Amino acid sequence: MIQDNQTNMVYLAHGLSHYVPVCRNLLEALHQEEIHAEFLPYTSSYKHVWARDYMPIQLEKTLVFFYQYWPDYLHGYDGYIPNVLEIIDHYHLGRIPVDIILDGGNVVGCGDKVIMTDKIFKENDWMERKEVIETLEHYLQAQIVFIPWDRYEIYGHADGMVRWIKGNRVLLNNYVQTDPCLRKRVLEALSPHFIVEELEYNVPRLSKLSWAYLNFLRVKNRIFVPGLHAMEDRIALQQIQDFYPDCMVIQVQGCEELARDGGALHCVTWNVLADVPEWAKEEA
Fold first, then answer.
1. Can you give the residue range of the structural domain that contains 164?
2. Are 244 and 165 in contact (CB under 8 A)?
3. In Å, what is the CA distance from 238 to each residue of 26, 195, 218?
4. How many structural domains is the chain composed of?
């Protein structure tokens, strides 16, 4: 499975253009860091903005893990699901199709491990837990570490809860201030496998959107952190920089609307390892 620090390109849904400030600011930030970005075909609706969730997991440069994107929160809302097979074929990618319902936002690569919330068992309740685990571990070639699903977040995604730093270190979101009970359960699940670092914001009043800072985009040694025009912006930027000293951390402003709609920069991107087009190299 390709890790974020191995990626060199970013794909966005055309639907992100409906979120004007963040689309403009993210494209400018990527261009400044000489990271090539393209829009995915067949994703023009604003409903298709969450590219992370429906795009497959990259296993090798030209091979992807093609799961079934049919989450319970979209039952009756088919318009939010683009034709992913058409997109994959457009890029001539090889695919391993697997009949497991999954969201890309529930896959946090951590080297030889992958963190997921246990919502995946609810989504695939016709399968035995053992079969779900064995199938995922076989194709992702990684041990799956399950954490409890945050029931206040209907999507059941792990990428808003925890992210990989390197080695056996991970970064946990700010549950110490927002949900101590859930924090305890998540720590119990993670601690046998990882050293857990935590975000925390010493501010008079915590923003309701502060969860979004952890939903950052990492490409190579560049980390793009959401900016929310909140008191925590500067603190989040500094803390993430401290936890990732080998990376350059860049804040992308204008993410408030995305966060209010339930996602941030990791949710709206699909970063991959790919051959950058020659014309893009010349432009850079």
1. 4-275
2. yes
3. 19, 20, 16
4. 1
From the number of C-beta atoms within 10 Å of its C-beta (0-12, 13-18, 19+), residue 280 rates as: middle
Where does the pLDDT of residue 150 fall: very low under 50, low under 70, confident under 90, or very high at 90 and above? confident
- The answer as to whether 282 is a domain residue is no
- In this structure, is residue 77 part of a structural domain? yes
Over residues 251-258, mean pLDDT: 96
More confident residue, 152 or 245: 245
Structure tokens at 209: 């959107």
CA distance 78 to 141: 31
pTM of the shown model: 0.95
* CATH label of the domain that carries residue 49: 3.75.10.10
Domain assignment present for 157: yes
- CA-based torsion, 77, 156, 202, 168: positive or negative: negative
How many Cα neighbours within 13 Å face the side chain of 103?
A: 28
